[in-house]
Amino acid sequence: MEDICILWFRQDLRLEDNPALIEANDSGLNILPIYILDDVNSDKWKIGSASRWWLNESLKKLNASLNYNLCFMNGDSKICLDKIIDTFNVKTVYFNKCYEPWRIQNDKEISSNLLNKGINVYSLSGSLLFEPESAMKDDGTPYKVFTPFYRKGCLQNSPEPRIPLETPKNINFLKHEELSLEELNLVPNKDWYKDFDKYWSPGEYGASEKLNQFLETGINDYKDGRNFPSKKNVSRLSPHLHHGEISPNKVWYEVKEKSESMDSYRNGDHYLSELGWREFSHNLLYFFPYLPEENLQKKFNNFPWDDNQDLLIKWQKGMTGYPIVDAGMRELWKTGYLHNRVRMIVGSFLVKNLLLHWHHGQEWFWDTLLDADLANNSASWQWVSGSGADAAPYFRIFNPVTQGEKFDPNGDYIKQYIPELRNLNGKFLYSPWEAPENVLQSAGIELGKNYPEPIIDLKLSREKALAAFEKLK
After folding, report:
1. Active site residue 364
2. Does the predicted TM-score (pTM) go above 0.85?
3. What pLDDT does residue 263 have?
């Protein structure tokens, strides 16, 4: 029986700049590429519904790029790997690192098991620009504030991000079938995802196209334009980055090159700092593995959260009566994506106006976002609630009316996702309940019938939130 190596794909569904693939190819051994859907060890953080749709589409593309040699498996990854090892003469296993706590623990156990069997294990860095251990404070402790983490810990004290690696040529793959992609049953039973492919093209090629599109039309005026959800100044790369269809290293260097060539340093630098936020979130999860479950700031353990399921459902469905909030929640449901400015608005509304625990928002985003990422999702919800690292201060409560007026001044975004308000203009578009009856009638709006009344009073809910936060002192 010939010697082979296993190339284990996880959140690195690409060929270009894939360190594990490069190392496997350099070994000279025939490569058995595998993907394991491990819903056992992931437990409550198994992949959410929207992300499963994306994963299914991405694996189709990856399998095609591997000349249909990708071996699909389902179950406990330790057992699945042992099954392959019992079938073939495996000399080495290659994979790129992941940073979720359950994966880190699982990888340790797998590596120990393989080494005990005399099998070499290589765990490579292919998902982050800066390894968590490299971006530490001078006293050896992890950063909890973003700016010094990024400017000093990453840009000054860490090695430069790796130059992207080219896709190897003449790769020798081994064909072995366990399950078909369809037998992984990734596509959710809910059919709300049926329009996703109108907005997205999962896979390595789609990721590269999205980056090119951003560099051509989005990066110019990125620093300011990124705040306006109807503008094209966002990269929309987050689902591609999460599933590893494009490496952050490729994005980093292409953005740098583009911004330098067009003399647009401020826009390029600001986008790179957003990649830095991604690094910061993963850093927090790495050093504080309880981030998805527990408040980083323990004083929030005593916060008097409400538990109103009716309000939660109205928030989820985009039926709060506050147009910018509802537009955001409907964008999320329709496209599997939510503009970052609007993420902050809907997040603030949930935890500060409705006083519902950030866990509710985290769980909804986990299931409905195509870019659902444990590090980013957890860190961002803790940030907006005030309980996390470098968090928004407790008194920062986004006003959905003024946020709409400022960042959707023509109402393009609101009207795109709330067509029942398309005939309402001016200031009343952001606060329909204040419009005179004749204005509502001429716009074809009947509050409480075809668009909801506000589910809470902004002023009273703000006062209630501030009073609750004040007690934490």
Report:
1. no
2. yes
3. 67
